Amino acid sequence: MTAPADLDLVTLRQSLQSLLPDVGAGAALQHLTTGAGAAAESRANIVVVGEPSTGKTSMINALLGCSDLLPVRPTASYIAVGGDRTSSVRAHYGDGRVTSGDLTHLAALLAEDADERPERVELTVTDPRLAGVTLFDTPGVGGTDSALAQLALTAVQQATALVFVCSAAAKISIAERKFLAEAASRIDQIVFVLSKTDKYADWEQVLAENVDTIRGDFHRFPPGRFDDVTFVPISARLAHMAAARGNLTLARISGIDELWSQLLRISAMHRELDELNTLRAIASAIDDAELILADRKQTLESAPEDDEQLAAVTRQITLLTEANSAWRMELARAIDTARDEARTRLRRRLNQLRDRYDAKMQEKIKPAMIPEIEATIVSDLCELQDEIDGAVRDHIEEITRHLLAGITGGDDTAATVVNNLPARGENAAEFLRERTGPPQDPSATMMGLTTAMMGTNTARMLITPSLAAALSVSAGGILAVGVGAVAALPVGVVWWRLQKKFRERASDVISLRGWINECLNSANGEISLDLDRIFRQASYTLQETIATAMADALQAATDARKDLGRARDRAAADLLRLNKVRTQLDPLREASRIRRQALLAGPVSGSG
């Protein structure tokens, strides 16, 4: 394979940022940090990570030849140490504030009793070896298996290389390996350090076990990632003793010189390492994106029951549409039956009222009782109005439920019509119940009742009666049916037509008998006409609504099937696009490998 001479990582990264969200794999972009693929910095960022009490800070102090430069006690801040011509300290806080000072301020900034600790501290010292290196000391409180591990990972995102510190006190832990796996997916160059070798006589055995554990952890590390892993054994205490005595033998045994050799080599090749880190992040992003898309495609391809369910819905609605005349006949039959039942109920109730008042008229009626009897007639007919009104609503609800159950295959999908009815307000019957008492003035009472009924029922009549229904079909193929509200069923319009009767008062018992019969007969005729009109309107509205709803449902099911096919096609196309990107990445990987081989011509401890 011929590798391109120029690795245009910025272009590749930009293409991935454009591609991955478009194919539904945007989560993979978390591997591409803000700085990945950008122009390399002028120095190497080397991040020191490890569990608490592994000696990370003591190691950095030993590297800088100053045993008390950085506080060795646990801290929640991470510290960046770089070189400059003058020493200084800059503290960065969570609210964006930055404070500056000299080295004497460092201990106060990180003191346990400090009022507020900074998130990070930037420290510069006059050490020429740090001219091209910045060392990051990450938090150790809670360890790499804690929430504070996120702070260390934040520093890792900007790292050129890692120094992973393990203590000779114990074998590398699962928590350490979990953190290492996350960091190793982003950083190409990792230097492994075994600290505190002066304290533990069996440190060589621990070192060998750590090497075997890392090489054999295929669950967390990809094959070949750490085949050449080695540890640099160090002792910060021996390094400080060597510096104090000028003892070169102790300095060599301490391992600090070997570690500096590793760090300076990283500094010399930091641009290439930044490039390799970018390639590693890009490769991880593509791997994650492939997994996401493969899972999407498998989900779609392994769900034929969804497709079959949609097809079944389509067939069901098609059959219902083809059987148009059948359900129209069923609707007509149901309407006729409901109308007949409502008329029968009306006649039966009117006959009961007629019999009651015939019996009443057999009693001895005094002229003073006439207004009270008239008021009772009004109250009874008003209650009859409400009764028939409720019966009509019940019939319409039952018809709607029956038809929708035939369409959807069950009763549970039809909403209760009554629950969707608008508030009826105060009707004449309620007025009578709440306001009628022992009449002081029968004439005034009759006039008040008549006025109340006229106001209530005129308002009812002015509301246009309609039956609105809306059906919808979910893309998953399950019909969700909703029945709209009956805006108004003004059976009480009869009172508007009977107002003349209410204004004509009976003057004697004989005229009262005739007045009662005329009211009952008129109520029978007018309410019967009203029933015909309401059921006719309900029939028209249901026919139109159901026909439209079934056509919409058929279209929705058809569209859902098309969407399923398009989604599968998109998933397949996305995989092809990612494979193309992977093909574009292969020559870049090859060029990086050749460059890496050239740079690492000699053995480099701790590389992986």
TrEMBL record:
Domain Dynamin N-terminal as annotated: residue spans: 46-194
Keyword Protease appears in the UniProt entry: no
Pfam families linked to this entry: Dynamin_N
InterPro entries (UniProt xref): Dynamin_N, P-loop_NTPase, TRAFAC_Dynamin-like_GTPase
Keywords of this entry: Membrane, Transmembrane, Transmembrane helix
Membrane-crossing residue ranges in chain numbering: 467-496
Superkingdom as given in the UniProt entry: Bacteria
Protein name: Dynamin N-terminal domain-containing protein
